[in-house]
Structure formats: structure tokens, C-alpha cells
């Protein structure tokens, strides 16, 4: 199975321009964190759509819950 994003490229992005040592699984940890954040965002947007009595999640629903989700991820 071909990866959608090569691990070496992801590691270069994480590392940035600083020369820091990264563990072997840091790219996987970052990917899993991203998946969890997107899952949390999707669930919150789904709840917002249900509150508005709509069956389709729109960008309006995502935009209304995104600041709360992002602030909860920082801390």
C-alpha cells in the first residue's frame, strides 16, 4: 500500500530548519494526533448540525465549532 504522505517528507516538515533529534515514531504520533483532532472536529460539527436540525454538515457548522476545538487542543 502506498502512503499518501511519505514519512521522510513529514519528518522534514516537523523538524523544520532546526537540527533536533526526533524519535523513530514521531511522524506517526503527529499523524494520530491530527486524526484525533479531525475526529473531534467532525463530531462537534455533527452535533452543531443536529442542533440546527440539518442533516448535512456545512462549512458554517465547522467554522462555528473550530475555535472551541482548537483552543481545547492547545492545552
From TrEMBL:
<comment type="similarity">
    <text>Belongs to the CENP-W/WIP1 family.</text>
</comment>
<dbReference type="GO" id="GO:0051382">
    <property type="term" value="P:kinetochore assembly"/>
</dbReference>
<keyword id="KW-0539">Nucleus</keyword>
<dbReference type="GO" id="GO:0007059">
    <property type="term" value="P:chromosome segregation"/>
</dbReference>
<keyword id="KW-0995">Kinetochore</keyword>
<dbReference type="GO" id="GO:0005654">
    <property type="term" value="C:nucleoplasm"/>
</dbReference>
<protein>
    <submittedName>
        <fullName>Centromere protein W</fullName>
    </submittedName>
</protein>
<dbReference type="InterPro" id="IPR028847">
    <property type="entry name" value="CENP-W"/>
</dbReference>
<dbReference type="InterPro" id="IPR052484">
    <property type="entry name" value="CENP-W/WIP1"/>
</dbReference>
<dbReference type="GO" id="GO:0003677">
    <property type="term" value="F:DNA binding"/>
</dbReference>
<keyword id="KW-0158">Chromosome</keyword>
<keyword id="KW-0137">Centromere</keyword>
<dbReference type="InterPro" id="IPR009072">
    <property type="entry name" value="Histone-fold"/>
</dbReference>
<dbReference type="GO" id="GO:0000776">
    <property type="term" value="C:kinetochore"/>
</dbReference>
<dbReference type="GO" id="GO:0046982">
    <property type="term" value="F:protein heterodimerization activity"/>
</dbReference>
<dbReference type="GO" id="GO:0000278">
    <property type="term" value="P:mitotic cell cycle"/>
</dbReference>
<dbReference type="Pfam" id="PF15510">
    <property type="entry name" value="CENP-W"/>
</dbReference>
Amino acid at each position: 500500500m502506498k502512503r499518501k504522505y511519505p514519512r521522510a517528507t513529514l519528518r522534514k516538515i516537523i523538524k523544520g530548519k532546526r537540527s533536533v533529534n526526533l524519535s523513530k515514531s514521531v511522524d506517526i504520533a503527529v499523524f494520530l494526533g491530527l486524526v484525533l483532532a479531525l475526529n473531534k472536529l467532525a463530531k462537534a460539527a455533527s452535533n452543531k448540525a443536529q442542533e440546527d436540525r440539518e442533516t448535512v454538515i456545512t462549512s458554517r457548522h465547522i467554522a462555528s465549532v473550530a475555535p472551541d476545538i482548537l483552543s481545547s487542543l492547545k492545552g
